[in-house]
Amino acid sequence: MMKEIELVFHNEGLRSYIEVDLCRECPRQDNKGCCGHYSPVFYPSDFAYLLGNHPEVMNYLMNIEDVTVLDASLTVNNSIDGDSYKCHFHRADGGCLLKQLQRESVCRHFVCPGIDWEKEASMQHWKDFFIQLEDYEIELNHRIADILKAQGLSLRDKDSWPLFFERLLSIFQSETKELPSFLLSCPKVERFTIKRQIYFQEEWRL
Predict the structure, then answer these.
(1) Could you write out the three-class secondary structure of the chain?
(2) In this predicted model, what pLDDT tens digit does every residue of 7-42 receive, in sequence order?
(3) 84-87-93 Cα angle (round to 5)
């Protein structure tokens, strides 16, 4: 069946995200969709945002039991759910527990391949925007992680968390004093409506 799909692009700088109305009636029809195939990974730029804007979410994040902690990142492991998995933050009756700005980058940027919005000529400026944003975030997070490591700080050492996050915030603020110009290349909010052929359950690609 053909269906109209609305995409809303939000330029929030490093916290930019894409909204898709189809998510509310996911064609996978399994009450988890893409959230059943991914374990979110939080990096230094995510920690900096949460510490500065939603410390209660940061505290919740750091007290989740089933996580994988590396030197400068934290993965919230998904859990077995029937014959597949589901994300720790996902709820069948309301979607993600986290607001858009609180999510890590994959969860903020991901749109099902079946929608394939990148091929639309009218959205090429957003395609370029999110490609550059992804590259910038990766480079920024690596840079912050390298500085923390050089200072002998690691997220693996729980006793050093207060100093780790204090230094992380300071480094993030210093490294983002001057942001790249592409962040000004798109409007604050822009909406598009497209039509796509919808398939259901496992025929809908994730």
Answers:
(1) CEEEEEEEEECCHHHCEEEEHHHHHCCCCCCCHHHHCCCCEECHHHHHHHHHHCHHHHHHHHCCCCEEECCCCEEECCEEECCEEECCCEECCCEECCCHHHCCHHHHHCCCCCCCHHHCHHHHHHHHHHHHHHHHHHHHHHHHHHHHHHCCCCCCCHHHHHHHHHHHHHHHHHHCCCCCHHHHCCCCEEEEEEEEECCCHHHCCC
(2) 999 999 999 999 999 999 999 988 888 888 899 999
(3) 95
Per-residue pLDDT tens over the stretch 42-89: 999 999 999 999 999 999 999 999 999 999 999 999 998 887 788 999
In contact, 153 and 147? CB cutoff 8 Å: no
* Pairing mode, strands 17-20 and 2-10: antiparallel
| CA gap 186, 199 in Å, rounded | 31
Closest CA to 202 of 27, 36, 22: 27
Tell me if 172 sits within 8 A of 71, measured CB to CB: no
- Taking alpha carbons only, the member of 73, 75, 77, 85 closest to residue 35 is 85
Distance CA 184, CA 182 (A): 5
